[in-house]
Design brief:
Layout: E1 2-6, E2 12-17, E3 23-30, H1 44-51, H2 61-69, E4 74-79, E5 84-91, H3 95-108, H4 113-131, H5 134-146, H6 160-165, H7 168-178, E6 184-190, H8 194-205, E7 227-232, E8 238-245, H9 253-266, H10 271-279, E9 283-292, E10 297-305, H11 310-326, H12 331-348, H13 352-366, H14 372-380, H15 384-394, E11 400-406
Parallel strand pairs: 2-6, 7-11
Antiparallel strand pairs: 1-2, 3-5, 3-6, 4-5, 8-10, 8-11, 9-10
Helix pairs in contact: 1-7, 3-8, 9-12, 9-15, 10-11, 11-15, 12-14
Amino acid sequence: MYHLSRLPNGLIVATAEMPHMASVAVGLWVGVGGRYEPDRISGVAHFIEHLMFKGTRRRTAKEISEAVEGVGGYLNAFTTEENTCFHARAHANRLVDLLDVLVDMFLHSRFSPADIAKERDVIKEEIAMYRDQPQQIVQELLHETLWPNHALGRPLTGTGKTLDHIHRANLLEFFRANYAAPNCLLVVAGSCRHADVLRAFRKFAETFPAGKKPSFAPVKTQQSAPAVRLHTRKTEQTQLALGIRTCSRHDERRHALRVLNAILGESMSSRLFQILREDKGLAYSVYSSWAFMEDTGALTISAGLDLEDLQKSLRIIARELRRLADTPVGAAELRRARDYVVGQMELALEGTENQMNWVGESLLGYGKIIAPAEAKQRLVRVTAAEVRNAAGDFFRPERLNLALVSPLARSATLGKFLRW
């Protein structure tokens, strides 16, 4: 199903052949994101992502959209801490059209001063929109707390101040330094053949600039006690985000943490959902999630609740964290959690877009395509002892970071709920 070719200029072409599908999802990936940015111009990768939709030498912004949407397709992009992806999806017989549009955006965007000025204001409006969303504020506050004085602690959008420091010369300098052939890959998933994709893309690939892969500052942590950060705001509901610093994507304990996350709060049958919502009625929204990066990671517990229930909820969360570290998970609960994680993966990978993301993330994160069957086999082998050991390793006070968006004016007493 998976095929991989490395072109002479270092650019990788990968395919996930799904002949039963009618469509193809095409992703043009670059191994650069928010953590590669200098502090003064943070948000520059996201800014570049926006500008690539604003027009090229051949197409206006409207013509870019029409070239894909006019054939019934879909076009978008996203920027993460470590990657950026420009992607499109349409019927398989439109593959060459999608390639032409994506490469045109990627290599021939104008970065005109007028577009830069307009898009700077657009991104500021995007930031203002997020500032009206307490759920977004609490996550950004948590990242600042998890990774203080580091690029991972900054918002991917940048800030109003950093956006004002980003000018055309900064954009072009960052682009030329990072968006080079050895740092790029093309992924196509769906009704395609690898040989046909290679043939169609080869003429585009030759125009990608030479260069090298960039580097970033590693995470260095000196935390010795729980940290609490508070954003005081008049809200009807307190937003809570508890971040637990874990491990990188290369650490074998990540498999146990994925199963542990399913047990803790990933689904409606998880412990936190059942206790905080179903049994106690303390929260409408409560869930946990994981993130693994090159040299660090985090497990995050998020909830929206009444301020009066904050301390009670923190006690319950802390109790459940300790229970996972102290008491082995039962066989039936472990089996359900493993089946849930594997089942969710299988459902997601039925689609072309998720297959494209799987391949792109695998190649940029591990330097190879990890077969889903291999990942599933490892998850199925996770034991109760591995789950307990991972909880014991990471559920420690010096790894806990609490962020709150709340009417609460002081947070001095909350740290006691995170110590044991």
